[in-house]
Amino acid sequence: MSTSGSTSVLWKIAPSALLPALVYEIGNGAVAPIIPLAALASGASTTTAALMAAMTGIGRILGDVPAAKLADRVGDRRAMSIAAAVTALCWLACLVTTSLVALGIALLVVGACNSTFYLARQNYVAEVVAITMRARALSTLAGAHRIGLFAGPFLGAGAITLGGLRAAFAIGVLATLATGLCLLFIRDLDLSGDRPHHVRGARGARAIFRDHRSLFLSLGLMVATVGAVRATRQIVLPLWADEIGLSATVTSLVFGIANMVDMSLFYPAGHVMDRWGRLAVAVPAMSLLGLGLIALPFTQEVIGFTLVAAAMSFGNGIGSGIMMTLGADAAPHDNRTTFLSVWRLLSDTGQALGPVIPAACAAAATLSVGIGLVGSLGIVAAVGLARWVPRYSTYATPSAARRQREAAGRGEG
């Protein structure tokens, strides 16, 4: 497909898929930085505040499989609308309550709603976009999420300036209500003509795991490892900046540079995946992340720290949408939603457990040992993806991608 044709397709899905994702993530981005601060203001200890910050991640793990059941029962659009409505109520509760118990419950429910929203939108894009455009569409969807998370804290900061700390929750309320309006008034696209509509809800998560056990215990474990490495990157960068004595202002500036590098690469990443195969992105992305983490403890000043942070962000950026794309490639047409819920469960579990490794190593040995250990996992993930992606994705290599494009051009799907 030509560049102009692919751009036209992305513009077609922008109102129904990309815009709601961006607006929804603005709310999450505005709220995320102030969750532990709101807990501290309500009388929480530092440990409890850290737990509150982790509640949305725990909620995502708990909500991944039920999200598939909801999406199969009511459809992707209604599932997203329900998730947006409940999230708005939860952010409103966070805005008005001073109870730590109520705050924790609300954040847990938000995490479960996030699972529903992300799964339904991924499933929708995988269904309405032609397979030859899948990676570009899903990497752009991932880019919309990242742009929203990047913009959200700035809006949250403005709200805090005007109305105090908890005013950031008001941005969360407004963003999720706006998401609901988008879903209410913007019509979804029709199913792509290159494959049949998938069967919904015929088999549960346990049956899907049993049917695809070898996939989940090989490629699925690599998905969990990727999630662990990516989540750890976000945690250890500020910790190591503090370790080498960088100020909060300098650390924030470095993060801004790194995030800009990350966000600028989502569309090129999808284009490379569609044209040259999934491995052309998956292996370099994880290699850069792994090597960057291994190199991080050797940085002792701001220039080296910035270069390593930018290199890791480059790796994370070129991997934009890769896990969603591989999940869509591997998913069967029957019960795709349930399959993707198990896929996301593995990724979310990895994201939750990954930061535990450097924390445990910092307590038992040193932070640098923990960072290096997670970096080694990044190299393991790169090797594992190189081995197992060709087994489960028909777009793994340049020759495989070319054959699929030629088959699509002949009308063979």
TrEMBL record:
The chain crosses the membrane at residues 34-58, 141-161, 167-186, 215-232, 244-267, 279-298, 356-385. It comes from the Bacteria. Keywords: Cell membrane, Membrane, Transmembrane, Transmembrane helix, Transport. Residues 1-393 form the Major facilitator superfamily (MFS) profile domain. It holds the Pfam family MFS_1. It is found in: Cell membrane. GO terms for molecular function: transmembrane transporter activity. GO terms for cellular component: plasma membrane. It is a multi-pass membrane protein. The keyword Hydrolase does not apply. The keyword Transferase does not apply. InterPro entries: MFS (IPR011701), MFS_dom (IPR020846), MFS_trans_sf (IPR036259), MFS_Transporters (IPR050171). This is Major facilitator superfamily (MFS) profile domain-containing protein. It comes from Streptomyces smaragdinus.
